[in-house]
Every structure is written in C-alpha cells, then in structure tokens.
Design goal:
This protein is of the alpha+beta class and about 230 residues long. The protein is about 25% helix and about 25% strand. The chain folds into 2 domains: about 10-145, Nucleoside Triphosphate Pyrophosphohydrolase (Alpha-Beta Complex), CATH 3.90.79; about 150-234, Arc Repressor Mutant, subunit A (Orthogonal Bundle), CATH 1.10.10.10. The protein has helices at about 55-65, 100-105, 130-145, 160-170, 180-185, 215-220; strands spanning about 10-20, 25-30, 40-45, 45-50, 75-80, 90-100, 115-120, 160, 190-200, 205-210.
C-alpha cells in the first residue's frame, strides 16, 4: 500500500452539538466523558472517524451509539483544529449540530454515558474546546434559522404558536412581538390549523397546528423571514 512519506499522523474526530426543545425551553444534550483526561466531566457527543467512514457516517454512528438517537436532523458547520485542542494527540474535529424534539426521543436516550439535558443558559464546564463549539453552533443555528424553517425539526407533530415563538426567542435570545410573529408565521402557508386546543397554558387555550410537509419542502429555500432585523444577530 502506497503511503505519503515524511508525514505525521493526525487523528480526525466528529463532535455533535445536540439541541433539543421540551415545549418551552431550548436545551443541550451532554454526556460524561468516560476516559482520561477530563474523565467524568461533561462533554459533547464525539468519536473518531474510522477508515471506511465519511464524516457524516461517523457523526450518525456516534450519535446513535452514545445516545440511541438516529434519523435526526444534522448539519456540519465547522472544523476545529488548533494544534493544542486535544492534550493526548493532534486531533481535528468536524463539528455537527443536531435538532430534536426532546419528548419524541427521551425514551431512546442511552443511560450508559449519563446523557443529560441542560438549559443553554446553565451549562456546566465542558472539556477541551467544546464550549467554543457550542458558541459557534448557536451562532450557526441562528443564521440558518433566520433563513430557513429548520426549527420545526425541534417541535412535536402538533404545536401551538406560543410554543414556536418561545423556541425562536430561545434561539435568538430576544423577545418577539406576539402579533407580528403570529401574522408572519401564518402568512408562510406552512401551518395547518387543528380543531383542538392546548388548555394547559391558559384558560382560553391556543389552537394546535401541524406543519404542512409538502409546503415545507417547497419553501425551504424561500422561507419568509420571521426574525426582524436578522443582521443585528451576526
């Protein structure tokens, strides 16, 4: 087998930043690291790419092995490669963020790695450069969500407009005007109103909606921007 001469080994890993929504709060899924260094400290889901794998294949494998999750929305967004980022060996990490509805997957979470959900504003100390990964993933999520309806991936099959607004406010860390948000959202044609209401949040209740999947696919690249003045976030 032919090899390049005079070159040193560099490992390549993947790390998955998993965002989840519980109906009112945006959260991050973390695990406790099982090996030294930094054993038992909280970490993103990660692992090394095998010779026969693409980065996408590795990210999906790591996600399923460590959490039990599969067939979720994932997007590759950055390569982290500072020479000193891993104290053991020179390692590049290809980072992905994933979006899931917590309630849909909560029973599938693998307990072996002590996976735990944390509020984005209340994260524990993370190993290596994982805090930097989370920070950049949040920024990338805001950018993508300002242009496309990807945040629907975090919602259950049926949801209320107040829940969706709470999700957007959690992602962008700002408050939106209730009437303007509702008007812009309904004008997209992406939602199908349901006959039943959610009576838990108020006496009057809020109607449930479902996402029109055919409209979602057709309008993915031309999504009406729900975020006022998105430039201020970037």
């Amino acid at each position: 087998m032919q090899r390049y001469t005079g070159q040193k080994r560099i490992l390549v890993a993947v790390d998955c930043i998993i965002f989840g929504f519980d109906g009112w709060n945006l959260k991050l899924l973390l695990v406790q690291r099982a090996i030294e260094p930094e054993k038992d400290k909280f970490s993103l889901m990660g692992g090394f790419i095998q010779p026969s794998e693409s980065p996408d294949d590795a990210a999906n494998r790591v996600l399923e092995y460590r959490t039990g999750l599969k067939n979720v929305y994932m997007d590759q967004f950055h390569v982290f490669g500072k020479p000193e980022r891993d104290p053991v060996e020179r390692t590049l990490s290809i980072a992905y963020y994933a979006l899931i509805d917590i309630h849909q997957y909560e029973k599938q979470i693998n307990d072996e790695f002590h996976a735990e959900w944390f509020l984005l504003n209340d994260l524990p100390e993370l190993i290596f450069d994982h805090a930097e990964m989370v920070k950049l993933a949040k920024k990338q999520l805001m950018y993508k969500a300002a242009l496309h309806p990807i945040l629907f991936q975090l919602l259950p099959e049926k949801f209320t407009i107040p829940q969706l607004q709470s999700l957007y406010e959690g992602v962008f860390q700002t408050q939106f005007d209730d009437r303007n948000f509702s008007r812009k959202l309904l004008s997209t044609g992406l939602l199908v109103k349901q006959p039943e209401k959610d009576k838990q949040s108020s006496k009057k209740g809020a109607f449930y909606y479902k996402l029109d999947q055919s409209q979602y696919k057709e309008n993915f690249e031309s999504f009406l921007n729900l975020v006022p003045n998105p430039d201020k976030f970037f």
